[in-house]
Amino acid sequence: MVTRCKKVNVDIYVDAVINHVGGGSGVGIAGSPYGHRTTAIYAQEDFHHKPGDLSAGCSITSYYDKYQVQYCDLEGLPDLCTSCPRVQTLVSQYMTNLLQMGVAGFRIDAAKHQDAGELKQLLEKVQGGIPWLFGEVIYGAGEAVTPEMYTDLGLVTEFRYAGQLAPNILAEGKLQYLKTFGESWGFLPGGSAVVFMDNHDTQRGGACGANLTYKNGALYTLANVFMLAHPYGYPKVMSSYNFDAHDQGPPDVPVHGSGLACFHGSWVCEHRYPEIANMVAWRQAAGTGAPEVFQSSEDGNGAFFCRSSSACVALNRGSGNWSVKVKTTLPAGQYYDVLRDINVSSCPFVRVAVDGTAELLVPSTSAVAFHVNARSTPRARLLDDRDQRSEKGELPGFVERRG
Fold it and tell me: Where does the signal sequence lie (predicted)?
């Protein structure tokens, strides 16, 4: 799979579970037994354990106790001794083998539950070095282990991002407050943070208040548009499946139908939403520029900003269309509103006048986005008032069709 993906310029990042092993006991599909703090690879001595008792570990009862967080069993999962030479050798060999296969980097699962210094020792043993990684460190107010402890190792998950962005999307009238969104809100430095609206855990638990998911429909999509438009952090887009129960497994049907579409029921495929997929190119066009010319509506439901002289976006949280004249930073010309269709050349366009202004009509709970790498041709159609009225109350793209 790694080789096939590399041929089409798709990088694979491994979710490396190196803090612990599975709980319970039994026999694996290859016939190897596990349980009682032993596996086919690890012996009881390779785990953290109670003094004088190799068969048992302590439990985490307080996240204000650093020792418990990093040396006791997480939810009953036997905790590997990541400072032990044998464990460091086995894990570093595992990661080295994956890199030799061609993977591009790692997500370190439960990094919070491994001492940062010990984890650094382990990672330094990986042959050739690790090109890119980020650690999963869930923030907890006042807790003994913080995300800041891991920024020297690579990027770190910033769970507070979604937790603080979500309330400003869920409620009307709050987009205006996003003008200062970023590090000043108490987040990690932007260059150290991996940001996301949801992941496989928050979809089922809402850690740090991150409670927006595909089930929120247009609001979730709008939040992702903002995430990809805003320069803070390294954004991570979710791609998941429909579920009703917390522990419900994935569908038993292929992701793609005969036409390679993945919106046919069981699979959600958020990464294929036109509004999300096309914002990736928007972000690339925007480069590293900070938000400029921030403009909000009187009711706080609308927000507009540009990045450098390359890309602009307008978001509308209101229940009605937002008609607004904005001052852009883009050269005069006609630009596709890239959020309306996965095929950008089928999108309507926005006209930027010689003085840099543009008149926009942003649909309810939606956005308009345009950038210098998606200029329309002279034959492109205008998004006139008739087009806007026909779309009143609808989310551009496929989200509403999925319910």
Answer: none
